[in-house]
Amino acid sequence: MNNIYLADNELVDRFVSGDKNSLELLINRYRKQVYTYIYLLVKKQHLAEDIFQDTFIKVIKSLDGGKYQDNGKFLAWVLRIAHNLVIDHYRKERQLNATSREDFGLDILNSQKYAVKPAEDSMIDRQIRKDIRGLIDTLPEEQKEVLILRQYCELSFKEIADHTNVSINTALGRMRYALINLRRMVKEKNLTLTAS
Predict the structure, then answer these.
(1) ∠ CA(120), CA(136), CA(90), 5° rounding?
(2) DSSP secondary structure letter of residue 4
(3) The pTM is what?
């Protein structure tokens, strides 16, 4: 069987047994989701890349040290490591008095698909992204986290529940309230979220 089709736990077992290529397959399998999650939290490409690398360095050390217990939640485990490293980064910055409130915002709709459009459309898209980002930043933390994990990291509600240590119903409820709150704020602020 080709390694690419192996389950996460099988790849982890092979890595622990000395097959270093297995970890590369796992990293490639989840690269987009993990990087996107980090980037949406830190908003800076170079910082996201650094934390992404640190995340997988910590993953390797944890696997080598036997600190990972397989329970079918490899991605949730990696995202928890990434989340903790982001928090650690901002704690260190705060201690150095180098952080402003805006640094911890979320650049929700930063997307390449907006890059090849007429100038006017790009300006409108930028304003829409800015408006939505501003609204998302005002959501309660639990709702904001579920929205990011679902919409931008493409996690299932089961994965979100595992990652946030809540039931699936609670994760669904938080997503529902996040969308209700966003709709309410769009209506209250009379925002137009389409370019037409």
Answers:
(1) 110
(2) G
(3) 0.58
